[in-house]
């Protein structure tokens, strides 16, 4: 089988009025749709649910939300990439 030269960009996902590209991921915590946000497009400050630290403007990160139909725009969470990848090894911290 020949090798693909183009990376898999995921599939288009419609979220209400917003349209974006997301990839599906499965883990012990369920099925998720995940979108990468490049640093140049990160224009707001968010709080990562994995480490309870801020994701500052200009920092690349991921946005994840449940893959089922009940997942809405309000269910989206912005995570540091490392926190998202380590979510199975550690639990979200309590927000102060």
What can be said about this structure in brief?
With 96 residues, this protein is mostly beta strands. Helix content is 5%, strand content 38%.
Labels describing this entry:
ATP/GTP-binding protein; about 100 residues; single chain; 7 strands; mainly beta; 5-stranded antiparallel β-sheet; two-stranded antiparallel ribbon
Describe this structure in words.
This is ATP/GTP-binding protein. With 96 residues, the chain is mainly beta. It has one domain. It has one helix at 81-85, and strands spanning 11-15, 18-27, 30-37, 46-47, 54-55, 61-66, 77-79. The strands form two sheets. The chain has a five-stranded antiparallel β-sheet. The longest helix is centred in the last third of the chain and has 5 residues, at 81-85.
Write the layout of secondary structure elements.
Elements: E1 11-15, E2 18-27, E3 30-37, E4 46-47, E5 54-55, E6 61-66, E7 77-79, H1 81-85
Antiparallel strand pairs: 1-2, 2-3, 3-6, 4-5, 6-7
Quaternary: single chain
Span between N and C termini?
52 Å
Structure summary, number of beta strands:
7
Residue runs with pLDDT of under 50 for 5 or more positions:
13-19
From N to C, what is the helix and strand string? Answer: EEEEEEEH
Overall pLDDT: 80
Beta-strand percentage? 35-45%
Number of domains: 1
Q: Note the main sheet.
A: 5 strands, antiparallel
Organism: Amycolatopsis acidiphila
Protein name: ATP/GTP-binding protein
